[in-house]
Amino acid sequence: MHVRRGFTLIEIVVGLVLFSIVLLTVTTLIAPQVRRGVDPIWQVRAAELAQSLMNEISAKSFDEASNRGGGMTRCNEGTDCTPSASLGPDAGESRDIFDDVDDYHGLNQSGAAILNTLGNQLSAEGVSLYAGFTAQVSVFYDDNVDGVNDDDTDGDGTLDSGTYVGNTKLISVTITTPGGERLAFSRLRSNF
């Protein structure tokens, strides 16, 4: 006589519970790895965006008072460069007509509002390439090339009234990825 034997209800329930525990453990271990897998993609996009902004900014004149006609004198050689308190866009200027590096001081763009120099959205097939990203630009005088704002005229650490004028500007671009990682990029621009 042949006896058929199957699983009891208790064996099936125990099997399902064990399978659920194993599945939960595997999912818990894999999920963070998926998150870390996208970080390098965001970092590459952040570096591309920062490089693009740096190239755009560096292509501009050192200062509003710079001789753009190829003359032999620079600002600070007869005509003063822009004082530290006045760094930023000139009255009525927007990004499409920025003409010197410090016009970009204070530029702050996020997500779909991140535009190229022509004012076009950076997208592929209608989707913003930088959704969730933030780009911030800071420009200040850094004549001693230490990465610290040189708005100090007497060397004792006392900030002046914003009248500092130098011959080297530090351009700092900070990109924040959708994951919250802040990546900072810097470049010096000299008065030449």
Topology:
Elements: H1 9-58, E1 108-110, E2 123-124, E3 127-128, E4 134-141, E5 168-176, E6 182-190
Antiparallel strand pairs: 1-4, 2-3, 4-5, 5-6
Description of the structure:
By secondary structure, the chain is an alpha+beta fold. It has one domain (9-190). It contains one helix and six strands; from the N terminus they run αββββββ. The protein has one helix at residues 9-58; strands at 108-110, 123-124, 127-128, 134-141, 168-176, 182-190. Strands 1-4-5-6 form a four-stranded antiparallel sheet, with helices on one face. The radius of gyration is 28 Å and the shape is elongated. The termini are far apart. The mean pLDDT is 85.
Task: Identify the notable features of this structure and list them briefly.
two-stranded antiparallel ribbon; 6 strands; 192 residues; alpha+beta; 4-stranded antiparallel β-sheet
